[in-house]
Amino acid sequence: MKYNRILLKLSGESLTGEKGYGIDEVRLNDYARQIKEAAQMGVQVGIVIGGGNIFRGLSGSQKGFDRVKGDQMGMLATVINSLALSSALTAIGQKNRVYTSIRMEPVGELYSKWKAIESMQNGEVAILSGGTGNPFFTTDTASALRGIEIEADAMFKGTRVDGVYTADPEKDPSATKFDTISFDEVYDRGLRVMDLTATTMCKQNNLPIVVFDMDTYGNLKKVGLAGLLQPAQSGVIHCFSMVTGFRISPCRSEFEGLCASGRAGCLAAGELAAKSWRWIRPCLRRSTAPRKPPCSPARRRPICGFWNSTSPLRARSTR
């Protein structure tokens, strides 16, 4: 399965980068280049970005701000970040368009589902700013809402860590990572992947979530490539690892054996995998089989299995 359209949720706090405040230009440009790479793969990209690097309405209300006005300030913070990202994308030649949840011309166009979809179909990155346009809703909820509206295949949640853990790995070294986790288990464990409103919306509307480390350059493209090998399933949250993909990777010894015997030359995922796992490329080069199978796929179709600790499926050839 290839992702045709995704909703990318970016953390505003991650934009602080090494500076620790405001917008780090290096981090911003890294994000822009990764987004352009995804767009060049033919993926339609819609983006919702937070504003935590500038202002959070909830934290402001705890310091004496009126909650509604605080949330409105937070919405403006997301617009500022969206404009910065738009500028960075434009600088590297990636077409994009900023939409705002409340009327704010000429800063951006008023958001409409149909306008956003049309711009993505025309090769533009749609940056959806301003949250939902209403107080008391987070940008997580906004990303769930926009992802459902634009009919995205999945929500990609780019964070500072590479998945969902039993606790905050930046605070608890003993925290363990989930490969996949259901929405119900998120509720039961009280995990703070997203706020409950966003999680419920994704569950009810069958929008799968892929959590990955956006701060590591190249991860967004790898997540998109991994979708061809292991597509995201609705009803669960997937955790992407830079080293092993979705914690599911081809069994190396079995794969090398197929290549040595000349049976993996027409492996459906071979060309893609060669770009994603360095060790596969030399294996393919050693294979003596032709790139296109001389016989019907129905008679002989080499396929790529996947491996994890609980279900050790292996690469194999079927007849």
Describe this structure in words.
The protein is built from 11 helices and 11 strands. The chain has about 325 residues and is α/β, with parallel strands linked by helices. The chain has 2 domains: about 5-240, Carbamate kinase (3-Layer(aba) Sandwich); about 250-319, no CATH class. The strands form 2 sheets. A 9-stranded mixed sheet has the order 4-3-5-2-1-6-8-9-7, sandwiched between helices. α8 (about 220-230) links the parallel β8 and β9 (about 235-240).
Features:
319 residues, alpha/beta, Carbamate kinase, nine-stranded mixed beta sheet, two-stranded antiparallel sheet, 11 helices, 11 strands, 15% strand, disordered C terminus
Quickly give the structural class: alpha/beta
Please report the distance between the alpha carbons of the first and last residues. Answer: 23 Å
CA radius of gyration is 21 Å
CATH class of the largest domain: Alpha Beta
CATH architecture of the largest domain: 3-Layer(aba) Sandwich
Largest sheet descriptor = 9 strands, mixed
Mean pLDDT, all residues:
77
Beta-strand content estimate: 15-25%
Order of helices and strands: EHEHHEEHEHEEHHEHEHHHEE
| Strand element count | 11
**CATH H level, superfamily name of the largest domain:** Acetylglutamate kinase-like
Low-confidence stretches: 242-259, 262-319
The total domain count is 2
Number of helices: 11
The helix content, as a percent range, equals 25-40%
Tell me the CATH topology of the largest domain. Answer: Carbamate kinase
